[in-house]
Amino acid sequence: MAIRIASFLVIICAALSAQPLIAGNALMPAGTSVAVAKSTLTVTPEREWNRLSARPGRNSETWTLDGDDLNGVNFYSIETARALFREVSKRTKPLPRFSSTMLLTDIPALLENSYRIALGTTLFSMTNIEPVPFLGAKGVRFSYSFRKQMEDVSRNGEAVGAIVNGRLYLMSFDAPAILYFDRDVATFRQIVSSARLESLPMAARR
Amino acid sequence: MRYAFGYAVLCLLLGCLSPTAMAQEKSAVRQGFALDPNSTKILLFRPKVTVGSQSTAGMFEPNADWTQQARDNLDVALAEAQQSLGNEIVGSVDVAGQQAESLAEYQSLFGIVAQSVIEFQFFPGNRLPTKKREGAAFDWTLGPGVSALASRSGARYGLFIFTEDQFGSTGRKIFQVFAAMGGVGIQSGQHKGFAGLVDLNGGDLLWLNADLQMGGDVRTIDGARRRVAQLLEDFPGSSISLAAAQ
Amino acid sequence: MRRALSRAIPPLALALPVAASAASAPADLPPYTQAYQPQGTDERGLWMLADEDERNLRDSKFVINDPALQAYVGGVLCRAVGEDRCRGVRIYLVRVASFNANMAPNGTMQLWSGLLLRVRSEAELAAVLGHEFAHFELRHSLAGFRQRRSATDIAAWASFLGQYGPAIQQTAIGSIFQFNREQEKQADLLSLKYAIQSPYSAQAASHIWQRLMGEADATALGRKQRSQRYDRVAFFATHPTNLDRATYLSTLSADVAVKPEAAESYSTALAKWLPEFLSDQLKLNDFGGTEYLLASLAGEHWTAPLLFARAELYRQRGNPRDLVAAADFYRSALGADPDMADAWRGLGLCLMRDRQQVEGTVALKNYIRLRPQAADISMLHAMIGE
User: Which residue of A177, A192, B97, B128 could cross-link A50, Cys pair, CB 3.0 to 4.6 Å?
Assistant: First the structure.
């Protein structure tokens, strides 16, 4: 029996520790249009990015230059009654859900509350909320600053979103306030300015 | 259900969920970097040193005496090693208020950067495509703001050190033998550390060494010397002098 | 899983060193030494880690920097456990939106803002502080550590015992939590002794647990989950069930002389922070629990900040009927305090989401007038078509 447990263990351990090996982060080349967040939302980056194989949720993905803790861009395409990203615990820490009847001012609140719950933090503040055209619709751009629970590094964020045909399209950028945010936010804004909604579903991703 | 629980417990106990020895790079130096021959004063930030033992099940038990011994030994060994390189080491003084906050923020940022290097450049399976291709630069930084931390000391470089040692208890070692009979390899004791050198002028990470399996019993001065030699392995300009310490 | 527990092999399970001092009536206070220095390898090791943690905590942005509130809480602690005892403690008020407090072996006490929000009187605060202090005085961190070590050792060995292994592991791991429950009970009983000698009502302690049960039930109901059962100890519960606590605390304190609760001085001390702590709570996506908490804070008198919080809660959930209720609450809050800018904002957005564009615009204009520098001002200008 001991050996049976042991062999199970080996399999479990192998499965768990092998995960990062199977994973493949992908190169997002400069100047090439690419559909993001398993949706018709497409962007054209002017510089190279890395797409992480780990997704924050079903219809979302993360790009980064140096690691998502240093400079991370998240793309979301969220339908009504869904949360922004995967819940840590559906039972004890459920995340707020998007609703297509939300006003644009509810979008910053949706992101703030999701972050507060997921990161277990109380230090989160909105520093600016303003109207901006996005994806051919009325959109909202907002800036914020926050800290992860009991962490000494202060982080800044910026996001742009709009509700189109009842679906929330949102892009956000988070980085440490020291150096990283100011250095890299321009490349995020470039991606935002390149965003389009394709009318026809794009072919499956490579 | 109950078996699943058992396996989960066992997995945790054996520590197989932590990223262990996989083929992984351990250190890197920024391209074209050489120590400034005119100014080799190095500011050592309060090293994070934890030493303790590991019970049979692998629970960490902190040991204050060992930690203090290790701290003292490492200080001595570091000074020796750097002296033999012709570098001067200065310790960071205890600061308060605004300065303490700034120091804490940079130490925390260093941890995040080091973790990102390990996860996205050293660890082969998870490497970022832009970091793994042929000739990709080792290009990481804390930003030029870090120079504020150095203004008083007049140091040119900053050295961050983190070590954690868990010595296997007797029970843990016996358990290891039994586990091996059952065909399971478990670790007795855990010794990991990383060290990084930062340019205090521009904030660039010049060199990083991360090892999840370190040698040297830091509770003794000889062990501490060995650990320091290992931590400073590949330290810029170190190849000859440090070999002597081993 | 629960069935497996009852089939656990008794000898090993019984061998676990569970300190089972049953609940007994309060006796004399245990001896107390000041400026205690840690003894032995494991105790000194734990103090070292606690010192290192405190070093980090001291500079953390999560610590609430309010000397007045700090001094107030310190004063309550001293009255709760006595002047000589309270000097060994450093209190840190930490901004975390849950009900918790803890005490490290070196005398670092953390109180979370979610606890300050839920406590309603000095007497209740004294009960909580006394409880944490009792852990310190009884040196529970150390005892807990020693017990955890032997229990996990047994679990490790049990993995070689074939099919009975998992059951023993469960029992051994479970005993960690069992031991924890015993410690909690001991601390409750010692803190009751402090309370009897203090100027505060000893009945207060049981009120806290009764309200926490109500809130947990309301949270579960709001999330369409089953209510927690208070008559049975969950396997992983680290604390006695709240019903258990409320019962033995109220029984033991029943015949003690009635002393003041000091509810008003508490709410005065906390007034400045109440809107902040309420705002943290509102963002936790817990409709049922928050509704219960607000009602219990209001009692028979809904103040403007509480009405505003309730309005925000309903607007967030955002069903059509919620928007109607929220608008009513905003209007009541504004009736009590017409200059409450955030209430005008909430009312305006609430009406707009309910497709009452004209009325919504009027309300938002009031907000813009009162807060011309607000972070979202340009967004709101756009929404009213300016």
Answer: B128
| pLDDT tens by residue, chain A, 206 residues | 343 444 444 344 443 443 434 458 999 999 999 999 999 999 999 999 999 998 999 999 999 999 999 999 999 999 999 999 998 778 878 999 999 999 999 999 999 999 999 988 999 999 999 999 999 999 999 999 999 876 789 999 999 999 999 999 999 999 999 999 999 999 999 999 999 998 755 444 44
**Residues of chain B with C-beta less than 8 angstroms from the C-beta of A6:** 182-184
Predicted confidence (pLDDT) per residue in C178-204, tens digit = 446 677 778 778 878 888 888 888 778
Pairwise CB contact (< 8 Å): C156 & B104: no
Q: Is residue C234 part of a domain?
A: yes
What's C351's domain CATH number?
A: 1.25.40.10
Are B203 and A179 in contact (CB < 8 Å)?
yes
ipTM score for this prediction: 0.85
Give the residue from C223, C253, C283 where a domain finishes: C253
Indicate if C92 and C222 belong to the same structural domain: yes
Q: Indicate the SS3 state at residue B231.
A: helix
Q: Answer for the pair A173, A192: CB distance below 8 angstroms, yes or no.
A: no
In this structure, are residues A140 and B93 in contact, taking their beta carbons and an 8 Å threshold? no
Query: For chain A, what is the radius of gyration of the CA atoms?
Result: 18
Measured between alpha carbons, how far is residue A198 from residues A162, A201, A202, C152 in Å?
15, 7, 7, 57
Look at residue B34 and give its three-state secondary structure: coil
Residues C112 and C82 occupy one common structural domain: yes
Q: In the listed set C218, C253, C288, which residue is the last one of a domain according to the structure?
A: C253
- Closest to C124 in 3D by CA, of C213, C198, C218: C198
At C332-372, the pLDDT tens digits run 999 999 999 999 999 999 999 999 999 999 999 999 999 99
- Mean pLDDT value of segment C38-59: 75
- Please say if the pLDDT value at position B172 is more than 60: no
What is the least distance, in Å, from the CA of C280 to any CA of chain A? Answer: 6
Which tokens in the block code for residue A170? 């949102």
Query: Is B109 at the interface with chain A, CB within 8 A?
Result: yes
Q: Do A117 and C223 touch (CB under 8 A)?
A: no
Based on the fold, state whether residues C341 and C223 are members of the same structural domain: no
* Long-range interactions of C42-47: CB distance < 8 A, separation 24+: C42/B61, C42/C142, C42/C145, C42/C146, C43/C105, C43/C139, C43/C142, C44/B63, C44/B64, C44/B65, C45/B52, C45/B61, C45/B62, C45/B63, C45/B64, C45/B67, C46/B62, C46/C105, C46/C141, C46/C142, C46/C145, C47/B64, C47/C105, C47/C106
For residue A183, what are the contacts with CB-CB under 8 A and spacing of at least 6? B143
For residue C140, the enclosing domain spans 40-253
- Which positions in chain A touch C316 (Cβ < 8 Å)? 96, 109
Q: Give the 3-state secondary structure of residue B192.
A: strand
Average pLDDT (C244-265) is 73
